[in-house]
Each structure stands twice: as structure tokens, then as C-alpha cells.
Specification:
Chain A has 573 residues and is an alpha+beta fold. Helix content of chain A is 42%, strand content 18%. Among the domains of chain A are: 248-347, Alpha-Beta Plaits, CATH 3.30.70; 486-550, no CATH class. Chain A contains 20 helices and 19 strands. In chain A, the strands form four sheets. Chain A has an eight-stranded antiparallel beta sheet. Chain B is an alpha/beta fold and 397 residues long. Chain B has helices at residues 6-9, 15-18, 24-28, 30-35, 42-53, 61-68, 75-79, 86-99, 105-117, 136-139, 155-159, 164-176, 193-197, 204-217, 228-237, 239-243, 252-261, 281-286, 291-299, 324-327, 329-344, 356-369, 378-385, and strands at 149-152, 181-183, 222-225, 248-251, 275-277, 350-353, 374-377. The chains are: A alpha+beta (573), B alpha/beta (397). The structure holds flavin-adenine dinucleotide and iron/sulfur cluster (2 copies). One iron/sulfur cluster binds next to helix 3 and helix 5 of chain B.
Chain lengths: 573, 397
Amino acid sequence: MRFDEQQIGDIVGADNVSTTPETCMIYSKDVTSLPEVAHQIVSPRFDVITQPVDVLSLRNLILYALDNGIPIVPRGNGTSGWGGAIPTRGGICVALSGMSEILYFNEFESAVTVETGITWRDLLTFVERLGFTLPVYPSSATAATVGGFVASGGLGIGSTRHGDILKQVLGIEAVLPNGKIVRLGRLLLDSKNDELKEKVEEGNLWLSKQLSTAGLGTPEQETKLFTGTYGTLGIITKVTLKTIPKLYLLPFACSFDNMADLVKVANIIISKAKPYYLRFLTDNYTSKLDALNEYENESGKFILTGALLDTIYRNEDNVEIIKTATNEDNGAVLNDKRSRYYWNERFYPLRVKRHGPSIVPAEMLAPINMIPEILEKTKTELRNSKIAIEGMLSNDGTTSVMVWILDDERKKVSFTIGWHRSFKFASLAQRFGGLPYAVGLWNGRHARKYYGNDAYNDLKVMKKKLDPRNIMNPVKVFGGRVTIGRESMLIGFLIGFIGTLIAGWVIPRIPILVQLIQLLDSSLLQLLYFPYLVIVGLSVGLVGLLITRIMTLNQALAMGIPLLRILSKLKRK
Amino acid sequence: MTKLDFLERYGQEDEPYVCASCGNCTLVCPVFHELKWESYGPRGKLHVVKSILEGKSEFGKDFAHKIFLCNLCEHCTSVCTTGISLDRFWEVVRAEVRERGFLPAPAQFVLKSLKERGDIMWMGSADRLLWMEDIEEIVKGRILKKAKVAYFLGCNVSLKSQLHDVAKSMVKIMDYAGVDFTLLGDKEVCCGAPLGWAGNLKDINEMAEKNLEIIRELGVETIVFSCPSCILTWSEYSEYLKENQNIELLTASQFISRLIRERRLSFEEQPMITPTFHDPCISARVLKATEEPREIMDYIPGVYHVEMNPSRQNTRCCGSHGLLDVVDPILASKIAEVRLRDVTVTPATRIVTECPRCILAFDLAKFTTNYDILVQDITQLVASSLAPKDEGGAKDQ
Ligand SMILES: Cc1cc2nc3c(=O)[nH]c(=O)nc-3n(C[C@H](O)[C@H](O)[C@H](O)COP(=O)(O)OP(=O)(O)OC[C@H]3O[C@@H](n4cnc5c(N)ncnc54)[C@H](O)[C@@H]3O)c2cc1C
Ligand code: SF4
Ligand code: SF4
């Protein structure tokens, strides 16, 4: 990759660039520990890490990347695990945590505008001091950035009442892969201090034209092009989010002996009490929460926990609803202290990881009512694995189901092979009407299903228009060619070569061909056969190598996943 | 492949793999806050350790230096999703830094000073008596006296003249309350904490034992400390204390609030003092002693304390812990300035705390930021608020 560190330093500030191998390694990771073999298809590290501190230097950086054809990948704080923020072809990582100001707050409009590098925790602290809170924030709020969650979409704390995060976005500002700065939806700002006004007018004019040629709406209507698309169409620099009054928060928790009862009660609570937050923890999750060891009523049970956020009076009524439903369905309502414990635990879904010490994640979005069946099936399919399952319930009849498969990455072979379980769970999810929870890099194969056919087609069209050189977070969501490691190229070559040799040995021994060959037999043919075979073998080997060079991510996965499955079966035998 | 078998020696080999990479630790780390790059934050350093374990990175000088750019402030540990004792982990890695000969020069000096002088400042035992000037009357006959309560000053309070008033205040309070207490005087040696910070974990017990042997002989049941790190070190590393739970270790404010509850201290109305309490990392996050200092301030008439944000378990480090003040004084003072900024947005007119390192750090930060505010130890606030002696409380039997 051709890049000039000094030139990048001139653009974003010398202190905001690093090319040290250690920094590049660290910023190239997200929460998922990948098996080594993954780096046969995606590059192990970025070439440069940058931390721009304002929109104009970010824009200039994008223009630099465009001029030089260098991939550019936005990164919040790397707390996601779907590969959205990791490198696929090296290039420039744009860490956005240096852009973290709160720009605008208006209680009458119930909205706050921030730079996207701010963490949810810092934003929450700010709005809560003013008597407000956020309708939705992720359970990674302590570290995740506003930009990262808005770019990923997804359910969070508050989704049981307010739906997913994308519904809370009023407007955004983004820098496109061609350096144009645009604003979509309703971005609220103090217009007196708006230094980007002219650039935005120009950018929006250009974007409007592109949108209308694609048959889409105005920038005002098309925020969703950039939210939930993992930074593949542009880097989001500002977001206006809804805020809600911070009413009286009342955590609650109930324990059950089985998932069917839990789901029944969850449905009642969602429809009647309209809680702010509702999460379930299954038996194999609670049995691994060490802090529950002394609570017989909780360890190894199914826990339904959440919080009401309403007036004191309405909360009181709703608590009665929760109590009655729980008692009627064989559950036990836990006391305030325990409820608060689970509320505080909302930020720590990965507590159980110590039991691994590594995790292979498997996640999906599924209809709430299917959960008992999905759980049963998952337990049977993954009966030889240590697992812990939990999820967050939404207000639209769906829930996230997070299956943490506990493993040990130090056992390299079994850890690598064990990844097939994650894919196995994804296909199981589909059988039950579920969807992958997120797309990022690894679920790009399911992107069409995830976004819906029409929306996905629109995204594809716009990707081509906005990013014809495919520099913005390449291979994510839309797939594409991958960087194949030397080992894989060698394997491609060997498969071609050895396959040809074997074919050359087997084919002449097929009975009819034997006779034919005997008929044509001459010592000359015998002599010429093997050198030719080797030459053909080498050529086919080269073709094999070439195929690996031009393979797309989805093709690589389509070949790799069944291979892992076969290996795992062999291993078990 | 395992080039870091020392992790196994200390039972830490799983920890880099247990890390979920959630980033909680990095987002609270004062060093990351200043230096901005993940390679200076805890999550990044764990990634590097993992990479070294896998033979992909070097345990070189640069990494060794970064390991010392850390306050051992327990903030990362307190927020870790997967319950990694990160501070313990950093100390273990520091031990390996020392093994490999990469110890930063200031840390080498500290080790040498501890070995040859028994303190961190190359002074010596005779200097541990200097703080008693002007209060000879109170301390007379206290040194190595048999008593149930011992006051352990620690190196900073004993040896830094700037902090002598902390010790004077503590003994004044004890004397006022009629506590029968003892002092180790020139027999006191460093508690051993800086040994661990400088990568020598194996000699801490011996150093603690030098003090504890005397303390045991004096029949002490309660030790009161002016420095929370001494308490942490002894509870973690003293073999004797681990096996025998018969000696309690208290922070100054834990002890003072007990005296207040026993009605052994009475106070004069103060002329409207508005302090803010800076929770020292170790007392807040490890010893969980956050309420006692506030109770004390609430008890003194005329003292109206205001809260800083963040506070209690979420307190910010003063920047001076874990040898950072000697390894990288500029970074340390920048961290102190950040904490001082938290004070500036409150109406507080003084900072009260209970750790000598914090006092030194803020005194320096006051100077570098030109922000004039009184910095005191809680004992100083208490001692200066006591009502005249004849109204004092009951005496120990
Ligand atoms: C403990 C824990 C709890 C979690 N809880 C939840 C949860 O409740 N719900 C949920 O959905 N997920 C959850 N996650 C996953 C993850 O935290 C979220 O997706 C999170 O919002 C990612 O934020 P980030 O700042 O770390 O982004 P990153 O992981 O750095 O990036 C995520 C994606 O967004 C892109 N991106 C980042 N910033 C921008 C930007 N400014 N503009 C354009 N693209 C950008 C990246 O390229 C990448 O594709 C959790 C993770 C952990 C570790
Ligand atoms: S102990 Fe403090 S300074 Fe050191 S890594 Fe943890 S948070 Fe950072
Ligand atoms: S908080 Fe703990 S689990 Fe999370 S990144 Fe830091 S060390 Fe790892």
C-alpha cells in the first residue's frame, strides 16, 4: 500500500497518526478473537491509524485516501464483534473517539446533537444531569461510541419501549467517500456557529441529484442510507438523537424454572406494563454468573429482568401486573436489591467469558414466541459445547438471542474448527424465522435478507454512486474480493496440481478408457504422458491459485464453512 | 511458544484471554485519557501481551516503558467486565520488566533506596523522627510503647516536611481522644508497596514483616494509616496478616469516624468551610472507605462539603500513584491537572483527601495551573476543628 505518513500527518495533525506495528495491531481488532485462519481472507492489520479531530481534516483524509486508492475504515471504540471495524485490505483506520463534543441540546425539542466519537456513557451522564435520559443506548454504553451504534443499528437498553436505535436518530451529518459533507434528516445545530454550512449546501445538492437519479427521496428522508450500514457509505460525524424525560426508574427481576413460562410472562409485561427494558438470562447463563452462586433461587434458573421508566403511580400499577403475571406462571418475583443487581449488570453481558476463557459468538434476532424452541434446539445441537444464552426483548415481538459458546483459543485447531458452530446457529435461526442480529463483515452473506430486498438494492446502487472506487470500508455489508494469505494460495495451487495428477492416474484406469488406451498404445504415448500430465497439473494449479486471488468473501466462506463442518465431524469421530 | 512463563508463576496466564476487549478499562484509564492511543491503555496492553505470548510481538524496551506508564490506580480493575485483577496483572508484568533488565531508572533508584535506606527517598531512619518537632509533649513515651493502637505514617508522611502536619494532626487527634497509641518512630520502614510498583513482588512480605514484627510485639490490635496503599499492600502481601486476622488495618478516616461515634471528639463551629473530598483510588476502589470521610465532614459544624464529579468508586486518579510521578512526572502532573479541573467546577474552597501522594500531586498541579486552593488531609481538617482540649472525650482504659 502506498501512503505517506508525513502527508497524512499534515492532514490530521502529526500527533494523530500512528504506524507503529503495535498500534496498528491493536486498532485492527474488535471484540471477537478470530482464529488465525481468518487472516487468510482478511488482512491482519491496518497500515495507518489516524485520529482526526475535526470534520474538515477528516474530509481531507478521505480525499487523500481516494486519490491514492487506499481503503479507509471508520472505527468507534471497536466494541462490536461482526468485523465491521476491522481491516479487510489494510489501509487507514479512522478512529473517531477524538471527535466527542456535545454540540446542541434543546429540552423543548427533546433532542441532543453530538459528535459521533462520544461514548454513550458520557452522553447519558450529560443528559441525565439535565433531567433527561436516552430512549435507547447499547449495553456497551460504557465504551461504545454514538457513531458505532448508530452505524450498526441494533437493540439496546430502552428498546423494549422505544424500538431499535435507528428510530431514535433524528438527523446525521456524514462525510461521503468522495469527501462531500452532507446532512440528512433533521440535524439540529446552533446555526450561528455552523462553519460547514457552505460545504454542506454543496454536498446536499450533489447528494440530492444522486438520490433522485436512483429514484430515492430527498436527503431529509434518506438518513437510513448511513445508519445501520456499518460505515460503508460514509463516515457519520454528527448525530441528533431523541431524548426523553428521566422519569422514575424501577428495576425488577423474576426467576423461572423454564423458558416457556418466562416467555409467557414477558409477553404480558411487554403488552401491559410497557417496560423500558427487558432482558432474559437462561439457565446456562445464570449458572455461570459466579455472583449468583449464593442465590439458589437465581443460579441455574431462567431470569427475566428489566426496568420500568414512568411516573411513580404508573410504575406502582405496573409492578402489580408483573407480580401477578409472574406468580400465575410459576415464577418468583425477586426483591429490590436483587432487581437492582440485575439492572447494574445490564452493562456486563460478557461476564461469563471467564468460563471460556474465549468466546465464539452466535447471535440472531428471532420472534419472541420461538425462543423456547430455539433454546431447546440450540442446546441439542451444541450439546458438546459449553454455552451461555441471553437476550434483549424489543417492542415489536422480536428478541435478540446471544449464544456465547465458551471455548479456548489457545487450543488452536479445535478453536478454529469450533467456529462452524456459530454458522450452524445462524442457519438454525433462519429455520425458526430469525435473522442474523447484525451484518458487519462476517454476515455480509445475509445482507439482502437482513435489510430486505428493495432496501438492499437501493443501498447497492448508492454504494456504486457514492463510492465507485470502493475505498469506504470495503468488503463489509456488500462483500467483495478478499486478501488471500500465502497459505491459502498455496492450498489453491496444490488442490489444482494434485487433483490433476490424481485425475491423470485414475482416469486412464477407468475400464472403457483402458481398452481405448490399449488400442492406441504406443511406447511414444507412454513416454509423453507423464511430462504432459505434470504440465497440465501445474497449469491447473495456477488456475487454482488464481481462483483464490479473485475469490470474494462470500465464496471463501461458502467453501470454508462446510470444510469446518466436515473437520468437526472428523474430529468428533 | 510461551515466552511469558512468568504469568503462569503468578497464576495470570489466562487473563489476557479472559479479556473480552470490551474497552471499559481503557475508557476510564487516566493514562489513556492523556495519551489518546490504545497502546497506552489497559485493553491495548493486554492485546500486546497476548501477541507476545503468541510470538508475534517483542517484550522490548518500548513495551516495558509503557507498562510503567500506569498509575496502578485500580480504575481498570474496578470496571473490568470479566473480573480481571488488572492492577495485579500490571505488577506481575512489571516484575518481568525487572527480570529482563528494562526497569526505568527512577524505578531502579526506588528499589536501591528501599534496600539500602528502608525508604523511597534515600533518607534514612533518623529522618523519620523529624516530623515530631513541636509536638514532643504529645509523642513523648509513645515510641515503641505497648498499646492497642499503632499509627503507621508511611514514607511520605514521615519524611516529606510538606506532609509532617498530617502526622502531627493525627497524633493530636489521638491524644485529644485519649487513645493509647504507639509509634514505630525510627524503627518504621517502608510498608513495601513501592517494591511491587518497581517489579519486586517477592520481597514485599519481608519488608512488611519488618514493621509487623515490632507491631506484634507491642500487642497492637489496630493499625491506623495515613496512606491507603500501605493497607492494601499489607493485606495483599503480608503472609502473617493473611493467616492471622487479629489485627485490623484502618484508614485515618475510618479510625476518626469511629472516635466520633464513640463521642471522643468534639468540634468547634467552623467559619463556613466548603471542602470537596477527593477519594484516593485505593481507599475508594479497594478499601471501599468512601463514606467515613464524608460522615466526618458532615459532623463538623460549619463544614459543608460539596461533591466532585466523578467521585467515590469512580474517582479519578491524582496521577502520582504507582511510581508514575517519578517515571514520567509530566504525565503525572497532567493527570493531576485533570482532577483539579473537576474541583474548579464546584464551589469548593479546599480539597480534602486522605493520601499523601494525592496531596503532593495537587500541590504541584496548583502550581502548574496557577489555581490557588488549599489542599489538606482529612486529619488536618479534623485536628484544626477540634474544640479546646478540656471538652475532649473519654480516655482508653
Ligand atoms: C459488552 C457489550 C455489550 C454490547 N451491547 C450491545 C447492545 O446492547 N446492542 C447492540 O446492538 N450491540 C451491542 N454490542 C455491540 C457493540 O457494542 C455495538 O454495536 C456498538 O454500538 C459499537 O460501537 P463502537 O463505537 O465500539 O463501534 P465499532 O465497533 O468501532 O464500529 C462498529 C461499526 O460501525 C462503524 N462505525 C463506527 N463509527 C462510525 C462512524 N462514526 N461513522 C460510520 N461508521 C462508523 C464501524 O466501521 C463498524 O462497522 C455490545 C458489545 C459489547 C462488548
Ligand atoms: S491501573 Fe489506572 S493507570 Fe493503570 S491501566 Fe489501569 S486505569 Fe490505567
Ligand atoms: S474491562 Fe476487562 S474485559 Fe474489558 S477490555 Fe478491559 S480488561 Fe478486557
